[in-house]
Amino acid sequence: MRSVLKLVALLALVVAGYLAFKPVPIDPAPWITTPNAGLTGPFAPNSLLADADSIALPGAGPEDLTVGADGALYTGLIGGAVVRIDRTTGEVRTIANTNGRPLGLRFDAAGDLVIADALKGIVAVRPNGELRTLVALGDTKLHFPDALDVAPDGVLWFSDASQRWDTRTGGLMDFWESRPSGRLLRHDPRVGETRVVLDSIDFANGVAVGPAGAWLLLNETMAGRIIRYWITGPRAGTRETFLEGLPGLPDNIGYDGHGLFWVALYAPRTAAVTRIRALPPWLRKVIYRIPERLRLSEADRYGMILGIDTLGQVRYNLQDPSGRVHSTTTAVAVNDTLYVGSLSLAVLARLRLPATP
Q1: Could you tell me if residue 357 is inside a domain?
Q2: Which of 21, 37, 78, 251 is surrounded by the fewest CB atoms within 10 Å?
Q3: Which contacts qualify for 243-246: CB closer than 8 Å, 24 or more apart?
């Protein structure tokens, strides 16, 4: 019996030593919990998004969507394919391949499709399919290009999600560490100048230039909030909180040109996830040492899209608690139809918008 007790004690010491001292890749920092309204008020739960049908794609991961001058949808897929989707026939055609991971994308005034590619930098696809690099990975320490938008004056505004981790971890390590290192950058293609305008963002994500190019919105994913950055006017160069307390992790955001921003929430900000991130750094290290299959490692499968006006008021709240439409990362409205992309699904969700917001 005494030998058994000694063996148990030895095993306990080994486990304790493993949990306390095994080297880990993360270096956590203290985190102050940010507001979370939960699924209440304007974010009250519903199943409106669950009614969506789908358009099949030749690959997974339509992380962002944009509409071309031809009325077609364009997106990028895992593996680098950039595809055009005919909204009427559903025909999907590959127009280019970055051989990287195309994330955010928008058309510029010349008709080039500008792409934030997590593995290549900021690249542009000409109408003939030719690729050219605008901002190479590493330029201005560009590490994780994520999303972008084109201002009326032609300036590109884009996010660098993290200076510490890249697309291979998809924000997971930034969650564990809580060391905000995301950035907002601007690139002026007329002079080839790129500069940083904001830093220390807690995973910088979607970017959308607002009315008349006076300001833009930037999603701060891990904080569950949207930042407004003023481009022109007396407040130019300053930032403020536009909307906080989001019940999910905001991914991409797009402006429809008519007073409405579409925001995709990747997953809910659950109480369990918040508790883990709020733990002392040393305890987060201990939990990280637990085998992945035994600890919380995947976000809940829940779809959520918000339509927000220029005053920060929620006009549309579309959810899928069933998880059929999940990992939602982008949404774009064309007339009365909303198209929704995902980080992992191999389809676009398509939904007729409610007649009344």
Answers
A1: no
A2: 21
A3: 243/308, 243/312, 244/34, 244/35, 245/34, 245/35, 245/36, 245/37, 246/36, 246/37, 246/43, 246/306
Q: Can you tell me which residue has the tokens 């701060």?
A: 220
Tell me which DSSP letter residue 143 carries: -
How sure is the predictor about 297, in pLDDT bands with cuts at 50, 70 and 90? low
Q: Say if strands 239-243 and 225-230 run parallel, antiparallel, or are unpaired.
A: antiparallel
What are 19's two structure tokens?
């949990």
Asked, for residue 334, whether it belongs to a domain, the answer is yes
Say how many domains are in the chain.
1
Helices (H), 123-215: 172-177
Ordered alpha helix ranges (H), 254-329 = 271-278, 281-289
Could you tell me which residue, 31 or 5, shows the higher pLDDT?
A: 31
Q: Is residue 213 part of a domain?
A: yes
| Of residues 213, 198, 328, the one with CA closest to residue 263 | 328
The arithmetic mean of pLDDT across residues 253-266, rounded, is: 97
When computed from its CA atoms, the radius of gyration of the chain, rounded to whole angstroms, is 21
Q: Whole-prediction pTM value?
A: 0.94
**Domain residue limits at 284:** 2-352
pLDDT at 15: 44
**Tokens, residue 308:** 């927000």
Residue 174, domain member (yes or no):
yes
DSSP-assigned letters across all residues of 77-112: -TTSEEEEE-TTT--EEEEEE-SS-EEEEEE-TTS-
CATH number of the CATH domain containing 297:
2.120.10.30
CA dihedral 138, 142, 147, 148 (to 10 degrees): -90
Half-sphere exposure of 159 (CA within 13 A, CB side): 33
